[in-house]
Amino acid sequence: MSVLRVVGRWILRFLIAVLALIVAVVIWAQFSPRPSVIAIDLLFRMSSVGKVDEKHAAEADKESTGRTDLAYGEGDDETLDVWTPRERGSEPLPVIVWVHGGGWIGGDKSDIAPYLKLLAAKGYAAVGIDYSLGPDTHYPVPLRQTDKAIVWLEKNADDLGLDTDRIVLAGDSAGAQIAAQYVAMLGDARYAKEVGVEPSISPDQVVGALLHSGPYDPRKALKASGAMGWFVRTVGWAYLGTKDFDDPRVEQATVTTHLTDGFPSTLVTAGDDDPLTAQGKEFAATLKKLGVEVKPYWAKGLFHEFQFDLSDAQAQQVLTESYSFLAKVTAP
């Protein structure tokens, strides 16, 4: 009987400790986005969303080679990978600079490496960059790091065999927003000054933008309800460093309202079942009104970042469209 009492006491203590932990986390979450960020990042890591299937990843390995974890800055997160065709001539290669997704709080350049290898095999230097994540780092640091990475590529162009007068900015999900905002600043010096990040390259060097499943209007995303609302408000708090979504930086990060006719030719894609697709369609429509050449692709019945699941016919179609788009905008 005494043994049962001892076991019962231990179980009670354990339950009290678990309850205390839950209460502590709930209280913590009122003052910091970190508890929710940890949960979201765990979900990202467990999900196959945004990842190339094993078959096509294996094919990519056969056709390309890379130099990985090259430091473009002094920060731990400031590294990049450069993927190129296994067989290449002596001419410098056009450059695709890809900003990975992950809600500004997760993700890694390794996630997109198989996809970049497939692009590289077609005759490009496909560069995946890492950048600092929220809530440890806030907007607009990733934009500064994108610029820093491109400057590093320019300085090392001869060694790497790059043609940095033919750059395509690309990204998926949050990375698409970062890439699109960087390109928008290139064509609008006043906007760049407002953000506090003045790009170091000429607008003429960026010949195209390739954007998948991006949130181009955070103002609208923050109005979502339910689980989507919780997700958006968590990553928004982590990225901006504030729970005040009337903060002027929310409008500032809304790329659609800062587009100009200087934006380069763009391929923009999303899936019909993705809650961000409405923003993609408005983004594409705005570019079209400005006279910018836009190639949109809206996949039927598919969700966020369907583009990487190359076992799907529509994802393969987007990859084929990407090959054609890249060949066109990077033509000498």
From TrEMBL:
<protein>
    <submittedName>
        <fullName>Alpha/beta hydrolase</fullName>
    </submittedName>
</protein>
<keyword id="KW-0812">Transmembrane</keyword>
<dbReference type="InterPro" id="IPR029058">
    <property type="entry name" value="AB_hydrolase_fold"/>
</dbReference>
<keyword id="KW-1133">Transmembrane helix</keyword>
<keyword id="KW-0378">Hydrolase</keyword>
<dbReference type="InterPro" id="IPR033140">
    <property type="entry name" value="Lipase_GDXG_put_SER_AS"/>
</dbReference>
<dbReference type="InterPro" id="IPR050300">
    <property type="entry name" value="GDXG_lipolytic_enzyme"/>
</dbReference>
<dbReference type="GO" id="GO:0016787">
    <property type="term" value="F:hydrolase activity"/>
</dbReference>
<feature type="active site">
    <location>
        <position position="173"/>
    </location>
</feature>
<dbReference type="InterPro" id="IPR013094">
    <property type="entry name" value="AB_hydrolase_3"/>
</dbReference>
<feature type="transmembrane region" description="Helical">
    <location>
        <begin position="12"/>
        <end position="31"/>
    </location>
</feature>
<feature type="domain" description="Alpha/beta hydrolase fold-3">
    <location>
        <begin position="96"/>
        <end position="307"/>
    </location>
</feature>
<comment type="similarity">
    <text>Belongs to the 'GDXG' lipolytic enzyme family.</text>
</comment>
<dbReference type="Pfam" id="PF07859">
    <property type="entry name" value="Abhydrolase_3"/>
</dbReference>
<keyword id="KW-0472">Membrane</keyword>
